[in-house]
Design a protein that fits this description.
The chain is an alpha/beta fold and 337 residues long. The protein folds into 2 domains: 2-219, Type I PLP-dependent aspartate aminotransferase-like (Major domain) (Aspartate Aminotransferase, domain 2, 3-Layer(aba) Sandwich); 226-336, Aspartate Aminotransferase, domain 1, CATH 3.90.1150.180. The protein is built from 14 helices and 11 strands. The protein has a 7-stranded mixed beta sheet, sandwiched between helices. The chain has a 4-stranded antiparallel beta sheet with strand order 8-9-11-10. The chain is elongated and about 75 Å long.
Amino acid sequence: MEALLRELLGAEGALVVNNNAAAVLLMLMACASGQEVVVSRGELVEIGGSFRVPDIMAQSGCTLREVGTTNKTKLSDYQLAVGEHTAALLKVHCSNYKIVGFTQAVPVAQLAEFAREKGLPLLYDLGSGAMLPLEPMGIMDEPGPAAALREGANLVCFSGDKLLGGPQAGIAVGDKALIDKMKRHPLMRALRPGKMSLAALEATLQLMRDPDMAKRELPLYAMLTQSVDDLYQSAQTLGHMLGDIQGVDTQVVKTQAQVGGGSTPGQMIPSMGLSLHPLKGSVEALGERLRVGHPPVIGRIQHDSLVVDMRSLLEGQLPLLAQALKDALVVEEENRA
């Protein structure tokens, strides 16, 4: 596993724990416990389950030294904050929200150069950790762990799920000496993942050796790489499959899809969907029947119609979706009768 991560990312060392919050906690405890860690005020994020970076830092025994403002942090802010008690600089990628407008942040390469001048490690909580280029899929400005290491970060932590597309896990890569400190920490045993998670993560990483295979086999990337033309054909086919159902109008519509899962905030990619407008009864009731059906189907209501987005379908699932829609629509027809 560690050899595979080193190979894929060009890292000196690597380790895996049970989630990214654990990776950040262990990184801070091993590298800076009892000392100050400098971090931009605009990067003090809250992740899922109300866990917050300042709280994780407090539990690690580090003293948080905030610099800059919510929307602007400059290199000079870090320069003024570093002192004799500083143990590390911490950068946090805002993977689940975005500040736009009058903003400024210090690039990783520039911050890494300053950290080297001061003899300090630059720690980077990347959060999502995409290992394949996302720009061709319409996702912009999402940093990856390999690029972060090349730009000079000493330790990079990220999730095994989200934009990596594997199981829940926390991955840390970077300087061997720092990774070894994390491995030797007493908390490492408490934070290690189970064997099933490790097996699933290794299978995911093996796919990353061949990007074309990863795009075919990993559900996240299979969804992201579907062309709009293919999605249009799927929506048309679904509409034809529902052609004998009375009491509903169907129409192929353009949609905008979002990755979600605490990543790529505010970014939408073009998609296609099938709009279902019940001629009698409420669209809300139709949506509820679909959600409690077998299998459950989640659509979104817009303009008094229920839209089912084709981008979230995997290969072979179209007949299952058609049957679920038929079941819900037939029940609605029977209820009206």
